[in-house]
Amino acid sequence: MVTLEKRGRVYLLTLTGDGEHRLNPALIGDLHSALSQIRAEASATGGVGGAALVIAAEGRFFSNGFDLKWASEKSPDSHRRSRLMTSAFQRTLAALISLPMPTVAAVTGHAAAAGFFLVLAHDYALMRADRGFLYMSEVDRGLPIIDAVMSLARAKMAPRARREALLGGAKLTAAAAAERGIVDGVCGGAAETVAAAVRLGEELAGLTWDGPSYAAARIAVFPEFAKIVELAAEEDPKSKL
């Protein structure tokens, strides 16, 4: 469901296949395992030397949100399944937010609902111009938004963009998303978007920032999210010197 490779100092995590990359426990678990592997490798270096992460996806979708079919099919307890899915996603976002390196989303296709929030959890986002939109579908489907991801929207989206996306269900193209400051750049197609994201990741890795310090700074940028998920920065041994 995902692959992880290293291009220079950049980790490239790809959601594979031509499907919608619906976020169910299996895919969320794969994402979390990959993030854990990256974190372990970064810890082995002491958080020095520079690294970055790019997340991309194959096919028409970056991610079309939660797997609502999985949550409801053949189960009398769909609420329990939904809670399982959302709590796992929340933990994975926490792992991404606390990762000790810069992160870049290569938005190579549609990103809707939880897929949109996955984009927002990155430090940077580049989006292909020729296909795809960002779409908060919850208002159209009558679904609630969990507090943790709503806190990311409040922190990362301007009031106008929040109103259009969260209250209006706007489907934002790459150009519209860039205009509203949701994505940082627009690229020609999927391959160009991934290539540009890897280049940006290499530039960021080249700054050789201290990993734990970078993670602590990011967590401090999102205090509401950190409080909701009980996320604290790892103690830096150098702080005791």
Automatic annotation (TrEMBL):
A Pfam short name: ECH_1
Annotated GO MF terms: delta(3)-delta(2)-enoyl-CoA isomerase activity
CDD domains the UniProt entry points to: crotonase-like
Homology family: Belongs to the enoyl-CoA hydratase/isomerase family.
Membrane spanning residue stretches: 93-121
Keywords: Lipid metabolism, Membrane, Transmembrane, Transmembrane helix
Pathway: Lipid metabolism; fatty acid beta-oxidation
GO terms, biological process: fatty acid beta-oxidation
Gene3D superfamilies associated with the record: 2-enoyl-CoA Hydratase, Chain A, domain 1
SUPFAM superfamilies: ClpP/crotonase
Lineage: Eukaryota, Viridiplantae, Streptophyta, Embryophyta, Tracheophyta
InterPro entries linked: ClpP/crotonase-like_dom_sf, Enoyl-CoA_hydra/iso
Protein's recorded name: Delta(3)-Delta(2)-enoyl-CoA isomerase
EC number(s) per entry: 5.3.3.8
GO CC field: peroxisome
Superkingdom of origin: Eukaryota
Reaction equation(s) it catalyzes: a (3Z)-enoyl-CoA = a 4-saturated (2E)-enoyl-CoA; a (3E)-enoyl-CoA = a 4-saturated (2E)-enoyl-CoA
Group of enzyme by EC: isomerase
